[in-house]
TrEMBL record:
InterPro entries: 23S_rRNA_MeTrnsfrase_RlmA, Methyltransf_11, SAM-dependent_MTases_sf. The keyword Transferase applies. GO terms for molecular function: methyltransferase activity. Residues 61-143 form the Methyltransferase type domain. PANTHER family: METHYLTRANSFERASE, METHYLTRANSFERASE TYPE 11 DOMAIN-CONTAINING PROTEIN. GO terms for biological process: methylation. It comes from the Bacteria. It comes from Streptomyces carpaticus. Its EC number is 2.1.1.-. Keywords: Methyltransferase, Transferase. This is Class I SAM-dependent methyltransferase.
Length: 255
């Protein structure tokens, strides 16, 4: 498995040239693997969407996850702030009657109060609990899979050394923020999952795409560390890190 028999320069150059647009990770196929959370978020969301009249999906990316839902409610809207992704989402979801919107610079959701039965998000950039509470109707629910604390920390620490600061993405911090916005948390589950890199090209491409793991990453700046990691993978086998995810569901009090 993997391409670690290839030489360092070839692997790095190939990964440096590969496009990293959108939220598609298929370039890593056969080169890196990531365990999935046990709750199966896309299926869970699909089942919920079939039971509501109106729903909003936040930070939808190119609409890939939402498009897996077999049935969408009569009123279905999504938000996406990055223009290339918003265009992808419009092309993919428009034919299914979905309204694609770009949030304002102030982060305010461009919808009236109390209109959605369900608000969802998979790996949102930032969860704005007061805005979510505002657009949910009484009795409505927010369902999300979020990136948890210290995700892929081992890889970040390999390049940067120990992470000193506490991580704000703690599940209990999300619970507290939801409750502060007037919502009641009815489900909160966490998972720690293995992420395995089989060659240095996979590491380079991943760090170019997921920019917050090693802020300011470039091949030139981190060449010596990349060479050392390449050697380690060749001699000791794939590099393993761990991601954390949590599933949260919060309801707005009402009928």
């Amino acid at each position: 498995m993997g391409r670690h028999h290839d030489d360092f320069e070839t692997l790095v150059e190939e990964a440096r040239r590969a496009p990293v647009d959108g939220w598609d990770f298929s370039w890593l196929e056969g080169r890196a693997t990531e365990e999935r959370p046990p709750w199966g978020y896309a299926r869970l969301l699909g089942r919920r969407l079939a039971t509501v009249h109106s729903a909003l999906d936040l930070d939808t990316g190119g609409g890939e996850v939402l498009d897996e839902a077999p049935v969408l409610p009569p009123l279905m809207a999504v938000t996406e702030s990055w223009p290339p992704n918003a265009a992808l989402a419009a092309a993919r979801l428009g034919p299914r009657g979905v309204v694609v919107t770009v949030p304002g610079d102030d982060g305010r959701l461009p919808f009236p109060d109390g209109v959605f039965d369900l608000v969802s998000a998979r790996h949102p950039v930032r969860t704005d609990w007061p805005q979510i509470a505002r657009v949910l109707r009484p009795g409505g629910a927010f369902l999300a899979q979020e990136v948890g604390p210290r995700s892929v920390a081992e890889l970040g620490e390999y390049f940067l050394g120990p992470w000193p600061k506490p991580d704000p993405r703690e599940p209990e911090a999300a619970r507290a923020a939801a409750e502060a916005a007037g919502l009641r948390v009815v489900d909160l589950r966490t998972a720690t999952l293995r992420t395995v890199f089989h060659d240095i090209g996979a590491v380079v491409w991943f760090l170019r795409k997921v920019v917050w793991i090693v802020p300011g990453f470039t091949v030139e700046r981190h060449l010596a560390t990349l060479r050392r990691l390449h050697q380690q993978i060749r001699e000791q086998g794939p590099f393993t890190a761990h991601t954390t995810r949590f599933l949260i569901e919060a309801r707005k009090p009402g009928p």
